[in-house]
Known about the structure:
By secondary structure, this protein is α/β, with parallel strands linked by helices.
Amino acid sequence: MEDRTISRAVISRLPRYYRYLGELLNAGVERISSSELSKRMNVTASQIRQDLNNFGGFGQQGYGYNVQYLYSEIGKILGLNKQHNVIIIGAGNLGQAIANYEAFEKSGFVLKGMFDINPNLKGKKVRGVPICMMDELKQFVKTHDIEIAALTIPKTNAKEVANILVQNGIKGIWNFAHIDLQLPEDIVVENVHISDSLMKLFYRLSSQEKTI
Ligand code: NAI
């Protein structure tokens, strides 16, 4: 596979390829053409070919794609074949909901600990994962080789907490706090705003209403 920069747009489509290929595998499909995949995914066959050509193609003329191979190669590109040790900062509603979602672990997301400033939460566990206080963070990150932190705290202190995470060696932040973080370039931040998706739904509903 060639080692070159892949556009964010392509990367953002890979999880969807991965999901569809996983479904095909579960259905016992061994190979698929780009046109068949394009029908199922509702994207053009040329888009699929272009996207996958970024990684060396994977397909063979006249054969199509080997589903198992493509699934595992995309999984590798996405880093799903590796273990990622994760902590959650903010053990409230959202933090606990993420902690309770066991299926993330199939993607190599291994939740090691949760952190909060509320002393009432100290020592409690969510699905067996301990809630610790922020003063335990430094040692915990080192001992458990933590790479990623999910930030599920209010935006008020999010910048300050993100800086503390970086100082302690965190490399990736899954940021649910509604604030843009200014961090060193080598820190990977993925912002999640569920409400954006909800607003898009609202918009689409209201634009449908207009056309009726
Ligand atoms: P919550 O109030 O149930 O939980 C927040 C937790 O963070 C509390 O346990 C609190 O003690 C802790 N906390 C506050 N400051 C902290 C700090 N400096 N260090 C460590 N822990 C700290 O709130 P909930 O419902 O879990 O939401 C959390 C945040 O996530 C909110 O700001 C909300 O706006 C945001 N959110 C974002 C979504 C998204 O799609 N991006 C979706 C839902 C919520």
